[in-house]
UniProtKB/TrEMBL annotation:
This is 25S rRNA adenine-N(1) methyltransferase. Its EC number is 2.1.1.-. It comes from Aspergillus coremiiformis. Keywords: Methyltransferase, Nucleus, S-adenosyl-L-methionine, Transferase. Belongs to the BMT2 family. It is an enzyme of class 2 (transferase).
Length: 286
């Protein structure tokens, strides 16, 4: 048998990586292969963040090359999009629509819509986007299609007035993408600034703002540094109240109502449960 030829991989920036195998054949990926790609991507991002924190630019560059060889951001997005396809369990925003349906029914016969910010949007045709009572702003680091703005949520200008705020923010498998624990805490704090109670247009109806949060269930149930109780404490310190929650074998879906403005408490990284099989997912609030 002739020896296999090694393929030379060209290193490109995250936003420009276009792996042909994912463009043409991503539908053939098994669910196991999809999960493995996503896990490798998260693991490499974490290693790169640690290298940058220690100012080891040489190591950070080597890890960046590994990220590109793993397919880069676009491959991660395509794997995530495939994971949310109907044959893999469907669209997570269907839970959001189901949970807020009582509020949407109050908009019948009006021209009012709830303003939604979907962070890390992968599609313009999910349940959230197709609902006639929602005005959805979709953003992502690497836009996959027209209708999704290329925007880093952490670099968005803070709202100047109520018109720039949103009634609902969706963080579906976004918080776990942030490579460091401090960044996750900052993202949650930033969500508070973008949520507002402004009245709907042509209506005196006010909607209490909400945050739709989706995480891999292992981030909450199998972490050394984060438990359901600690997540509750972090969110409560920011003025959130848990309204709805659903857990599957792979994901946890939560709808948090933002009831009041509070000064967030500090939460450090500390061991809450021990065990060799536990992961290191954490949220630090400074």
């Amino acid at each position: 048998m002739a020896p296999r030829r090694s393929r030379t991989k060209k290193t490109l920036s995250l936003s420009r990586t276009r792996p042909p195998i994912f463009r043409a054949k991503h539908t053939a990926l098994s669910s196991k292969a999809t999960r493995n790609l996503i896990r490798r991507h998260h693991r490499l991002l974490k290693k790169r963040a640690q290298a940058l924190k220690s100012r080891d630019e040489v190591l950070a560059e080597k890890i960046e090359v590994q990220i590109q060889q793993n397919g880069g951001l676009e491959s991660y997005q395509l794997a995530s999009k495939l994971g949310q396809s109907l044959e893999r369990g469907g669209d997570s925003s269907k839970f959001l629509i189901d949970w807020i349906s009582p509020h949407l029914s109050r908009l019948e016969g009006t021209k009012s819509k709830l303003r939604v910010l979907e962070v890390g949007a992968l599609s313009t045709k999910n349940a959230c986007s197709m609902n006639p009572y929602l005005d959805v702003t979709r953003i992502d680091l690497n836009s996959q299609e027209p209708g999704i703005l290329k925007q880093d949520f952490m670099e968005m200008s803070l709202p100047c007035d109520a018109a720039d705020q949103f009634h609902i923010i969706s963080l579906s498998l976004v918080l776990n993408y942030v490579p460091d624990a401090i960044g996750r805490g900052e993202m949650l704090k930033r969500c508070v600034a973008f949520l507002g109670k402004s009245p709907l247009s042509e209506s005196s109806l006010q909607i209490t703002p909400r945050l739709f949060l989706v995480l891999p269930v292992a981030c909450v149930t199998n972490s050394r540094y984060l438990t359901e109780r600690r997540l509750q404490e972090i969110m409560s310190s920011m003025g959130f109240v848990l309204e709805k929650s659903k857990e599957t074998s792979k994901l946890i879906f939560q709808l948090w109502k933002h009831s009041q403005g509070l000064q967030p408490k500090r939460f450090k990284k500390e061991i809450l449960r021990s065990g060799k099989t536990k992961n290191n997912f954490a949220i630090i609030v400074k």
